[in-house]
Amino acid sequence: MIFEKIKTIPTSEELLDKAFSRSVRTMAGKTIDGPTTRCEANEAMLLTAANILSDNLKSINKMFPSFDQISPFYYDLTDILIGVDDLKKALNNVKWASEKIHTMSREYIGKIRGNKTPDVPRKEAFGRMSSIVGSVSKDLLLLGEARNILRKLPDVREEPTIIVAGYPNVGKSSFVTAVTNATPEVASYPFTTKGILIGHMEKNNIRYQIIDTPGLLDRPMSERNEIELQAITALRRLDAIVLILIDPSESCGYDLTAQLKLAHEIQDQFAIPSIIAANKSDRDEFKKPDEIEYVISTMTGEGIDVLTEKLIEMLPKVEPKFEEMPPLRDDF
């Protein structure tokens, strides 16, 4: 995932402590026996501190991906959670600080060389570096918070996607497991204390992504906060459709009327292709609603293949991907 490589972002205090501690050790390793060596020792101190600060700030800037090039899905999520403009501003400020420290330190090297009291310009340089780093302290804190949030985002890919919605315990996770024939990946999601389940299936050399989103689509729209609604909008950046599962047996703990109301709210609220299917047909108390065409049982597998084919048919058409075969060798 694009944000996994972002390492821990140090605070301004941690950066300065690291740089100045190293510079002191550099001075301690020098033999000072005259004006020349004293200038060289102060120059080494300055270069050590400046390089550490400049390089670390530059590295922070490079760890973040270009927000002009990432997928629309992750762009929207980043904008919802943090604010892309705020992130860009913070990164530009950190880049400026890196370049400023690099340029300024080279100017002070000239002031140190041949100076009878080289520690004076070196201390002045340290003061200016501290001021520069201090000026981006809030930017570093913002980037640190952003890093902690972005690294937890699920690995959602730009593939044909089926989003599974419905009340809890209607069989959403069971459906993901059934159609992917594997234990789905569990990923944290920033809009709910629960996680989302991500599975993949392949049909005719095309890979499809199946996402169960508990906490996003399993309660009435009137109870949702703004971030939840924006999150679903972000999901629409994918080539997605919505499968809304209901449980007519009501063994999920919710009556059928409430389940159908949620299903219709989802269809009315979001301009995204959707289909309603009834699960748990294996239960004795199951009664198929007249308006529902597709009936399945994630327990027995009844109707799952037919429903899956319908879902694939509803998705935007994509070309199958074939692995290129290596060229044939002619040296046999």
Automatic annotation (TrEMBL):
OBG-type G domain ranges (all copies): 160-332
An MF annotation (GO) of this entry: hydrolase activity
Keywords: Hydrolase, Nucleotide-binding
PROSITE patterns associated with the record: G_OBG
Annotated CDD domains: NOG (cd01897)
Enzyme Commission code(s) on record: 3.6.5.-
Pfam families (UniProt xref): MMR_HSR1, NOG1_N
Name listed for the protein in its UniProt record: GTPase Obg
Designated gene of the protein: obg_1
